[in-house]
Design a protein that fits this description.
The protein has helices spanning 2-20, 23-57, 64-96, 100-104, 125-142, 145-184, 187-220, 224-241, 248-257, 262-275, 278-294, 303-316, 326-339, 343-378. The protein is mostly helical. The chain has one domain (2-378): Proton glutamate symport protein (Orthogonal Bundle), CATH 1.10.3860. The mean pLDDT is 84.
Length: 379
Amino acid sequence: MLLILKLIAGILLGIMMGLYAPHWLTQILITFKALFGQLLFFTVPLLILFFITSGIAALPRRSGKLLGRTLGIAYLSTIAAGTLAFLVATLVIPLLAPAAADLASTEGVSLTPYIEMNIPPVFSVMTALALAFIFGLGIASTQATSLKQLSDQGRDIIQLLLTKIIIPFLPLYIAGVFAQMAAAGTVFVTLQTFGIVLVLAIVLHWVWICSLFVIAGIKAGKSPFGLIKNMLPAYFTALGTMSSAATIPVALQATKNNGVKEDVANFTVPLCATVHLSGSTITIVSCAVAVIMMKSNLEIPSLFTMLPFILTLGVVMLAAPGVPGGAVMSAVGLLGSMLGFGEGAIALMIALYMAQDSFGTACNVTGDGAIAVLVDKAE
């Protein structure tokens, strides 16, 4: 929750500087944003490589059938949630949010950084994803302990970079984004869109939670509302922690309160904490549609164009780091390579997503309880 307050402070700081500070001072902040952005985009392929490799290699091997069933339901939930979010967002956001033409019609000044530096990534996002699957599945098959240790240590280094540098400085990065928009005269129209997307994403989260528990309740012969009621402690814990991993103890107890057998709950809940990301997918897809609306050089894609992005997103977020904003950090590369987002659009995505991260995490965790009920019934 402290991070959310810092992000809000960063947005306010950026707006005030863009509107009232001398241009030279605002350009210093924009210069930091440009340099920090280079570090961020350099880190993303490494994050995907080490985290997904480590996540696949560490998947439990207790029961192939139980593992396959849990992964299948979690992935199907993530993909279906993303598809629903895209269909609703493309209908609702163009009706309520201002279009790119409204942004372009405002008057302002375009400020540029004093220093620009290009730090190209070691490899592309799709190369990182392919390598992660090759090495992850290879390590799981051959029990290559040295490579497993290397991937775990690489993951720990990237997570240290995230927790010590990237996440702490994100509010200042966001401040630079909003300072640039305030100077250009587009910030208030953008904030209006922020509010619309926030409400839409939370409504879709609860639509998806209710859908999952209705299906689980029918399969298990139990009241969906009773199942949801037992999961509420996990929902509100996730709102505060912004981390699925940190909420596992509460989610585990809530799942057992729903009558799930202890051995099934102990297997499915920790696994789903890293592979079931329906709430995060809803948020990312909704935010992506909103950002496309605000950028004149982007067009809302068709469903068949968006489906490959959603399918790949469900994989890229596998074992997303247990830090706030891990899902959107994993998705940054896909936004650029598959949807054509530039640095400005990606910066808006990060700001939009981080403002709602706790709600997406809460949706993920609560949905884990429904998946546990479905797996338990199947067992």
